[in-house]
Write a sequence for this structure.
């Protein structure tokens, strides 16, 4: 399972997602352009001292990710506007969970690249959740549904490469 952030904009959100990925042993993939530098102090602070345990990959665009890392992965896009409720979606161990930029969500052109969409059911006046909160909910739901939470974690290595 992979977690893919498409053009993330806010450093602390990405730092929190990186810490989540380190905690559960899932690769974190970022698609450029990023709204920050990977050296950003807020990004580093949110990830705390867990950065050496994050399996991080940065891609120049979505096509580059799909060609190399994602060729055997099903792309599951998160959208607050459409998709099956995450708790009813049947996840696969080979899924890539795709979340979009904080201020605009995934563009329609990206959503059109996959028929697999999930949403987090919300009640009340809130139209969306913070990116790192949504990533946590979706990733744990997907891992629980596929039995990945029950398995030993793979060893971590920091690969900050393209």
């Amino acid at each position: 399972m992979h977690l893919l952030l498409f053009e993330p904009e806010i450093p602390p959100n990405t730092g929190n997602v990186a810490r989540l990925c380190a905690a559960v042993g899932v690769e974190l993939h970022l698609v450029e352009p990023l709204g920050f530098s990977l050296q950003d102090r807020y990004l580093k602070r949110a990830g705390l001292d867990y950065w050496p345990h994050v399996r991080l990959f940065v891609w120049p665009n979505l096509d580059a990710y799909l060609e190399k890392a994602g060729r055997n992965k099903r792309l599951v896009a998160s959208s607050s506007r459409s998709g099956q409720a995450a708790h009813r979606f049947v996840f696969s161990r080979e899924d890539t969970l795709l979340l979009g930029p904080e201020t605009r969500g995934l563009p329609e052109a990206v959503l059109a690249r996959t028929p697999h969409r999930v949403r987090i059911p919300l009640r009340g006046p809130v139209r969306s959740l913070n990116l790192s909160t949504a990533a946590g909910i979706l990733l744990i739901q997907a891992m629980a549904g596929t039995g990945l939470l029950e398995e030993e974690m793979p060893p971590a290595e920091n690969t900050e490469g393209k």
Summary: The CA atoms of residues 92 and 146 lie 6 Å apart. Strands lie at 2-6, 27-31, 56-59, 74-78, 84-85, 95-99, 117-119. The domain at 2-150 is CATH 3.40.1280.10 (Alpha/beta knot). Residues 158-162 have pLDDT under 50 and may be disordered.
